[in-house]
Amino acid sequence: MQDLLYFFQQLINGLTIGSAYALIAIGYTMVYGIIGMINFAHGEIYMIGAYTALITITGLASLGVAWLPLVLLVALICAMLVSSSMGWAVERVAYRPVRGRHRLIPLISAIGMSIFLQNYVHLAQGSRNIGFPALIEGGFTFGPADSFQTSISYMQITIFITTLICMTALSLFISRSRTGRACRAVSQDLGMANLLGIDTNRIISATFIIGAALAAVAGLLLGMYYGSIDPLFGFIAGLKAFTAAVLGGIGSIPGAMLGGLILGVSESMTSGYLSGEYKDVVSFGLLILILLFKPTGLLGKPEVEKI
Length: 307
Fold this sequence. Notes:
Layout: H1 2-35, H2 42-62, H3 68-95, H4 104-125, E1 130-131, E2 139-142, E3 150-153, H5 154-176, H6 178-188, H7 190-195, H8 200-226, E4 228-229, H9 233-248, H10 253-273, H11 279-293
Antiparallel strand pairs: 1-4, 2-3
Helix pairs in contact: 1-5, 1-8, 1-9, 1-10, 2-3, 2-4, 2-8, 2-9, 3-8, 5-6, 5-8, 6-8, 9-10, 9-11, 10-11
C-alpha cells in the first residue's frame, strides 16, 4: 500500500510538470507546423511572462488589492498581453525578414533573439533568484497517518484544470474558427494558401501570439509552483518543452500535449525511484529511443515533399 501511494505521488508530480511542458511545447509545434522553423526564443518568452506576472502581483499588493481571484486574473491577463506582444515582435524582427531563406539563417536569428532576451532580463531584473509568492496553498492528503501519504495540492489541481481549459479552447479554436481553419490551410501549403487569398503573414503572426500567450500561462503557473524565477528560468523549461514537442511529433498539437505529459512523468519517476541527477539522462534517453523506432515522434506524420 505504501509503495502504491508513493507511485501515485510521483505520478501526480509528473503530470503537474508535464502539463506545463505541454503548454510551452504547443508554441514550438505550432510555429514549426506553420512555417517549418524552430522558435528557440520561445523559452525566453515564457520567462518574460513569469516576470510580468510577478511584477503585476507585486504592484497589486502594493495597491492593497488582496482578493485572490482578481489578483490571479489581472496577473494572467498582463502576462499574456506582454508575452503575446513579445511573440509578435520576435516574429516581425527575427523571422519575417529571413523567411524563405536557408533554414540555418532563421535558426541563428532565433538563437540570437533568445540570447538578447536573456541578457535584457538579466540587466533589467538582475541575475539573482526572485521569490514568487505562493498564492494558492493547501491541498488534499490520502493514506494512513502513520505511513507515507499521497498529497495533491490546490496548486497542482489549478495547473491541471488550467491546462485542460487551455487545451480544449485551443482545440476548438483550431477546428472551428475561421482563423483556425486558415492556420490549418497554411500549415498544409503556405504558397497555395497565399494564392487563395489567405493573409499568410497575419496567420503566422497569430500563431506566434497564441503560442506566446500559452507560454505566459505556463510561466505564471510554474512560477507559483516552484516559488522562484531567474533569467535562466525559461532556458531549461524551453529546452524540455522542445524535447516534448519532438517526442510527441513536432508539428502535431496532440503530440505536444502527449510528449509533455510523458516527459514530465518520466522525470518524476526517475527522481522518485533513482535520483534527481538522472532525470535528464532518462528523459533524453527516452527521446532517442523513441526517435530510433519512430523518427517523426509518437503522433508525428512523415513530411511528403511536393514536386
